[in-house]
Amino acid sequence: MNSDVPYYINQINNSYVTMLAKDYPINVFYGYVTDGIFQNQSEVNTHAVQPGAEPGDIRFRDLNNDGVINDSDRTVIGNPNPSWLFSMNNSLSYKGFELSVFLQGIAGNKIYNANNIDNTGMAAAYNQTTDVLKRWQGEGTSNSMPRAVFGDPNQNTRVSDRFVENGSYLRLKNITLSYTFPKQWLQKAQIENARLSLSCENVATITGYSGFDPEVGINGIDQNRYPISRTFSLGLNFNF
Predict the structure, then answer these.
(1) pLDDT at 3 over 60
(2) Contacts of 42 by beta carbon, 8 Å cutoff, 6+ apart
(3) In degrees, to the nearest 5, what angle opens at C-alpha 139 toward C-alphas 136 and 141?
(4) What is the largest CA-CA distance in the chain?
(5) Distance between alpha carbon 113 and the CA centroid of its chain, in Å?
(6) Alpha-carbon span 97 to 176, nearest angstrom
(7) Beta strand segments in the chain, E
(8) Which domain of life does the protein's organism represent (predicted)?
(9) pLDDT band at 164 (very low <50, low <70, confident <90, very high)
(10) In sequence order, which residues have a C-beta less than 8 Å from that of residue 188 and are 6 or more positions away?
């Protein structure tokens, strides 16, 4: 295996999303860089040759300045590896009550939101998000959501930074409130100790990510993943 040759992995719709290459972090996202939307035919004509492009389509940058948009214009568009991982576990107690809180999060990573390929692709086979209501419908109407067109001749859904988002989050992972009964209450029942607890997992998440759940796994690609469920537990422990 030649360490100087990049290897592409993690395909979506027969296109590679991530890359392994020398001097780069593991599994960086690799694709095209977007530059708004063609607003009129004049902008299409004066741009580098971009097969299939029409007004209302995504404009991609000609990074190597050869006058043609092709595979040679792909570059690193995001890093799924976080710069920071952090957690904090706190507990407070008062008399028989105890409150435990566990916070967890990451920062500095990117997510490739592949769900939006279908959810905003405006194809008849898939449900769409309300974002498509803000699509391009004429000059000046949008510079981010492309036109609705059959067959996607410009490949607006190709691997690009259009689907890369900030993956940082802070999650209240667990909160538990418990009460330990006074021993004098338990003596007549010959119980040594008793503890009642109520806990909740995955209570809340602070994030700028638009998907269901920013905790998507090590490759950073969010596609058809069911979000982590919020669960409640009630417990009663006895020692005789």
Answers:
(1) no
(2) none
(3) 45
(4) 90
(5) 5
(6) 10
(7) 7-12, 15-20, 28-31, 34-37, 58-60, 75-78, 84-94, 97-107, 110-113, 164-166, 169-180, 193-207, 221-222, 231-239
(8) Bacteria
(9) very high
(10) none
pLDDT of residue 223 exceeding 50, the answer is yes
Token pair 């690799």 in the structure block, residue: 30
pLDDT over 60 (residue 141): yes
**pLDDT confidence tier of residue 1, bands split at 50, 70 and 90:** very low
pLDDT in tens, 66-96: 999 999 999 999 999 999 999 999 999 999 9
Q: Where are the domains of the chain?
A: 7-80+113-165, 84-111+166-239
Helices (H), the chain: 41-46, 115-119, 183-186
pLDDT in tens, 55-69: 999 999 999 999 999
What is the pTM (predicted TM-score) of this model? Answer: 0.87
Rounded to 5°, the CA angle 72-75-80 comes to 150
**Interatomic CA distance for residues 52 and 56, integer angstroms:** 11
Whole-number Å distance between alpha carbons of 27 and 144? 26
Instruction: Report the C-alpha gap between 138 and 80 in whole angstroms.
Output: 35
Q: Is 23 helix (H, G, I), strand (E, B) or coil?
A: coil
d(CA 79, CA 20): 11
Token pair in block for residue 101? 């809180």
